[in-house]
Amino acid sequence: MIRLHYFTFNPFQENTYILSAEDGSAILIDPGCYTEEEEQDLVDFLKSEHLHPVRIINTHCHLDHVFGNAFAAKKYNLPIEIHPGEQIVLDQALSMSHLYGIPMTPSPQPEHTLLPGEDLPLGDSRLKILFTPGHSPASISLYCRDQGFLIAGDVLFHESIGRTDLPGGNLATLLKSIRDEFFNLPDETVVYPGHGPKTTIGHERRNNPFLNSQYG
What we know:
The protein is an alpha/beta fold. The protein has one domain (3-215): Metallo-beta-lactamase, Chain A. It has helices at 36-48, 63-66, 69-76, 87-100, 171-182, 201-207, and strands at residues 3-9, 14-20, 25-29, 52-57, 80-82, 112-113, 119-122, 125-131, 140-144, 149-153, 156-157, 160-161, 190-193, 199-200. The strands form three sheets. Strands 1-2-3-4-5-6 form a six-stranded mixed sheet, covered by helices on one side. It is globular. The model has no long low-confidence stretch (mean pLDDT 96).
């Protein structure tokens, strides 16, 4: 059984997820901790829950999702894992931080790559990697079939979708990702996005205005 906890970090109000198993192993997804206080909040939670991180995964590499990569990788002696198509975005993160006027410590380079269709073990459970580009060139999402939840990155939000005006974004590609990968999942699937509150596939299928036919 996977337990899920999240923090909302940094000036962009990004959701950092911690998935943990009964044996205490944990996966950090999109560590966005920016300030020393946010870093300490993450460390204190993991310590209080007796969790030991075993992986650090970026759903995509926009700066708000990688602010905490350097800290988490050093603190827990773990490599960063991304889809190889996100390397160009990771390489641009530092220059983007200067553009926004928000300095950051550069992320370490990834040592492992994640490919669509792979199953990632966590305790007795597994997470399936879905390829969901459009918000960024090679975003991935993580789906737990047994527990019916989806870590969606910035692909799908509560009655909204990820922006597509950043380099590598494409609206038609994003909508196709949602329809092909997400809307094939059961309506009751809980969606945990990279920003904002959770939602469900069924709710978005019925109510998301960006997924009406007028948008493609």
